[in-house]
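User: Last request for today: this protein with adenosine-5'-diphosphate, please.
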Amino acid sequence: YTGKTGSELLTEKIKKFKVHEFLQVPVVVKDSVSVYDAISTMFLEDVGTLFVVDDNSCLTGVLSRKDLLRASIGQQNLSAVPVHIIMTRMPNIAVCRKDDLLIDAAQKLITRQIDGLPVVKEIDAGLEVVGRVTKTTMTKALVELTIGDHV
Ligand code: ADP
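Assistant: Here's the final one, the structure of the complex with adenosine-5'-diphosphate:
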């Protein structure tokens, strides 16, 4: 018997979760693509957040569902509007790294009031996008906490 309370054991379990164990495949678009193409990609790839990259595959922006909806209202030709006009851009992007604690990534989602974070890696040209974590990731982690317990 460890003498630890249930809540201490739970905290211990949660703090073992690292971003790299849970990260999902990122869906990226080039900053030269149109709003129309970004909307198509969002449907085809079935994601709620797209990451925008430059020719070096480095992060330049983020596109949410509402960013694309806002850009679409009253706009006739979505094929003529490049996403870099409407995206949220660097350096205002909240990111995380593979070896971060998942709980710290969750805290960023809450404080920034966003649905997802790109998982990035520093390279010479900037920040390479290597994954994503989202609110769905956090739901999976919550379920994972009960695996092995007889609930
Ligand atoms: P939605 O706008 O569809 O509700 P979000 O809550 O994720 O989706 O996005 C809210 C705003 O925050 C959008 O303008 C989006 O571009 C921006 N955003 C989304 N993810 C990030 C991020 N990781 N860092 C900075 N801004 C972000």
